[in-house]
Amino acid sequence: MFKHSIFLRIYAGLVILVVLVAIFGYLLVQIINYQRAQEYRESLTDGISYVISEGVARQKTRQQKIDWISDAADLLEMPMYYLDSSKIDLSRAEQKRIENQKAAVRFDAKKGVAYLIMGIEGDPQHYLYVKIDSLTERQMKVLPVFIWDYLAYYPGQEEEYLKKIQKHFYYNLSIEKISNLALDSEQFGRIQSDQNLVIYRDSASVRGTTISILAPLANAKDRVLVMGPMPMFNWMPFKLAAGITLLSLFLLSLGVYGLIVPMQRKIKQVNEALNIMKTGDMTLRVPVEGHDEMASLASSYNSMSDHIQRLIEAQRELMRAVSHELRTPVARIRFAMEMLADESDHDLRIQQTEMIDKDIEALNTLIDEIMTYAKLEQGTPSLEFEEIVLFDVLDQVRTETEALKTQKQIVLKDLPRDVIVEAEYRYLHRVVQNLTGNAIRYCDHIVQVSGGIESHTGLAFVCVEDDGPGISKEDRKRIFEAFARLDDSRTRASGGYGLGLSIVSRIAFWFGGRIDVDQSPSLGGARFIMYWPAQRFNKKKLKSDHA
Description:
Layout (H helix, E strand, L loop, with lengths): L5 H52 L4 H15 L3 E5 L7 H8 L4 E5 L4 E7 L6 E7 L4 H15 L6 H8 L7 E5 L7 H8 L4 E5 L8 E8 L2 E12 L6 H41 L14 H50 L3 H33 L7 E4 H13 L6 E4 L7 E4 L1 H18 L3 E8 L5 E8 L33 H11 L3 E6 L6 E8 L5 H8 L1
Parallel strand pairs: 10-12
Antiparallel strand pairs: 1-4, 2-3, 3-4, 5-8, 6-7, 7-8, 9-11, 12-13, 13-15, 14-15
Helix pairs in contact: 1-4, 1-7, 7-8, 8-9, 9-12, 10-11, 11-12
C-alpha cells in the first residue's frame, strides 16, 4: 500500500524529514553552543587576564613575580603557576591569542575544569597557568582588587587608564557615583562598609540575566568601580533560535520541494500530453513509472488515448466501409426504380418491387448492424447482468436457426440444464446467434454448438464449430475487424457485412472476457469460443456479510 500511494510517501517523507531536520537542528545548536561557550569563557577572562599578566610583568625579579602570583592565588583561591613556556604546547590559535594579549582557555568538559594560559609582557620564556575549578561569588568579589592594583600606579588618572584597558574587556568598566546606582539600603550599607558587591539582575530583554560587580574607591566614599553588567551565558539566545528556525524551515522547504518535484514532473507530462492531444495528435504516450496514483493517472491517460485513437480510426474505417456497403443496395434500388418506370408488364413490376423491398430490408439489416457495432465500440453499453440458464440460450438460437431452413445440421452438445451463468441475455443471445450464423454460411454440413463453465478457471463459455474450410492462422486476428472479409471461401457471396464477429468481439470485451478462434478438433473447420466470468461477484460471501 505504501509504494502504491504517492501521498502516503509524501506524508511519510515529511515525517522523516521533520525528524532529520530536528536532529540536525539539535546537533547544530550543540556545535554552535560549544563554540559560543568557548568564546564566552574567553571573553570573561580576556580583560582580567590582561590585568593579572600586567601585575606580574611589573614585578622586577623572578622571586617577586612568584610571590605576587602566590598572593594572587591565595586571594582567588585558585592554583596559579609560573611555568616555563617550553613545557606548554600551544595551538596556533592559542599562540595567536597570547600574542594579542589575551588568555588561551582550555576547557575539560568531563571534569568541568577550565585552564587559563596567559603571556607575560617582557617575559616570553614563561607563561602564567591558572586552573579554575569553579567561579564563586567570593572569587568574583576579588576581581576588582586586580584592577585597583593596576590603577594604583596611576594616582589621579584612574578613569583615564580605566578607559585605556577597556578594550581588553567585553563588558563595561566605569567609575560611578553611588547616588546614580539603583541600590537598596542593604547594598548601600555594604558599600559604605567597604565591601564589594555582586548584583544579579533579571531582564526581559535579549541579554537576559546579568551580573555586575561593585567595588568602593578607597579615596572616595561616594564613588565605586562598576564591572559590568556581564550577561550570563544564554544557551538559546533569540538570534540563535531565529537562525536555527529559519535554517530548519529552509531545509524543510527544500525537502518538501524534493518530495513534490517528482509528482509535479509527472503532472506536467500529463498536462503536456493533454495539450498535444487538443491539437489532434493522439500518438503521444506518458511514461508509466512506479505503481502509485501518478502512475495510475499516466496509465489511465494512455488507455484513454488508445481508446480515443481506436475510436477515431474505427470511425474512419466505419465511414469508409459503410459508404462502400451502401453503394451496392442503393445502386440496385436505383436500377430497379429505373426498370420499374419503363416496365409495363404487371408481373415484372411486382417482381421489381419485391427486389426493391429485399434491398431495403438489406439496408435495414446493415443499419441495425452498424448501430449495434457503434454502440458497443464507442463506450460502455448499459448492461443488465442476470442469472441465465445457459442451455435455454443455446437451444433458442438452434431453434431459430433451424426455422430458417438452411439445409444444414445444427447439433447442440449435451449441456446440463442447471448450468447458470451471469450475463446480459440480449447480448449473449446475439453472440451465439452471430457465431452460429457465421458457421452456417461457411460450413459444409454440420454446425456444433456447446457451452458450460470451466471448473479450473470458473469461466463460462460458449463454443460454435463447423466442418468448413476453417481460418488460416494469419487471418484469425483480422476477422474480428469491422467489415473484414477474407480472400478465401469467406467472400461476399457468402452474405453478411463483416460486422458480426466484430460485434461478438466487443460484447466479449464488455463482458470482461475474450473471444478465441482456432481449428475444431472434431469437425476440422473453424471453432469460435467466447469466455467470460460466470459470476461477477461472490453471492455466498455477500449473503454471509448480510447475515
